[in-house]
Amino acid sequence: MNSSTSITSIESTIVALLRENDSKAMDLIYEHYSASIYGILCKMLPDEEMAQDVLQRSFIKVWKNATTYDASKGKLFTWLLNIARNTGLDQLKSKEIKHGTQNVTADKIVYIQDSQSHSKQNIDAIGIKTLLHKLSDEHRQLIELMYFQGYTQAEISAYIPLPLGTVKTKLRNAISQLRILFAN
Amino acid sequence: MDINAYINSGVLELYLLNQLTEQEGIEVEEMCKKYPEILAERIAIEEALESLAGSEQKRPPAFLKDVILNEINNHSRVSDVTGPRSMTSSSSTFYWAVAASVIGVITTLATFFFYSQTKDLKNQLSLLEQQTEISKNELAVFKNPDFKQINLAKVDSTKEIQTANIYWNKTSSEVFISWNNKDPLPSDKQYQLWAIVDGKPVDAGVFDISDSLQQMKRIANATAFAVTIEQKGGSATPTLSSMVVMGAI
Q1: Residue B40 forms contact with A (CB below 8 Å)
Q2: Same domain flag for A20 and A73
Q3: Torsions phi, psi of A91, nearest 5?
Q4: Distance from the B9 Cα atom to the nearest Cα atom in chain A, whole angstroms
Q5: CA distance B149 to B191
Q6: What is the ipTM, given to two decimal places?
């Protein structure tokens, strides 16, 4: 797949620039990942103003920790999103906004198809919307809570009556289902 | 080591969602280094999650990119010189500075706006007051039976000059002119009013076009009034060829 090759080469270019502390890396990161990260922050945080503030703080953190990124521990996007998610959770805590006040129904999620930065991923956003909706309610809810909103296992098991040990296998099943749907 | 059991436990997903303790995380990293199948599975999950995020993406407002990249560039410059500083406080300082400037600009504009509005209103008010004063004076002239109205007729009937009226109070010698002609004169010319006293023209003052009654020089005795066009400031003797209107008492 050509698109995944080009993603990989962009990713390795960015990683090389980060290692050299070259701020051009941040421009590229913004171009390629800000919309994906911002989309998640908007679901996680009560308003877009806060999402913008958190996006800004996250980019500063990424830049401050540029040389600490270790590709062997995970892909660049995983690292970026975890920084942004933690920054968002910290912000919620500092504003004493109770995590979980947001409505987590799937209907609330706004699917925005953006042709510019993620067309490279060769993804049909409408298709994925359908895919996400093809999951069972339980699987979809788990992905929304854990991936999009940053709930912990413990919070999930309190939120949905589920034994703590089963959360991770359910999550595994949910993501596996998603992967099967992607593959088709 | 049962690789499939490890993969199926869901620990890789939790690792990628940053939900493991530091120790548990290190274990996962060790496993990935040791078993290529586990690493491949981890990467496959990451790609799926990245695609999922891509499908839910939302473009941040356009201004944000410059704000963020400027701050990053400022940060690199400052840290080169003075070492690290808190970006959080710098970020909020930046916002406050922007907010303060915006408020400053708005306040200035508003002040200026209201200042000009007030000034306009004041000007309008003083204009109204002046007009009221003029109307009151005019009314006093018109109502006063001592004022005699003299109609001045145009001298050359082919010229489009309207008639004028003189209001003359013989007792007080006050003279007013109501000049209805709206045609402007060349800038070096002015109208001049003459009173014919004992058969000779006497200067009664110069005037310009005006909507209101204009007070002229006092004239005690007159048999007629006439208006000529003269050099600006008036002449000592009238230019008879430029006489426009005239009326006898």
Answers
A1: no
A2: yes
A3: -65, -40
A4: 6
A5: 20
A6: 0.81
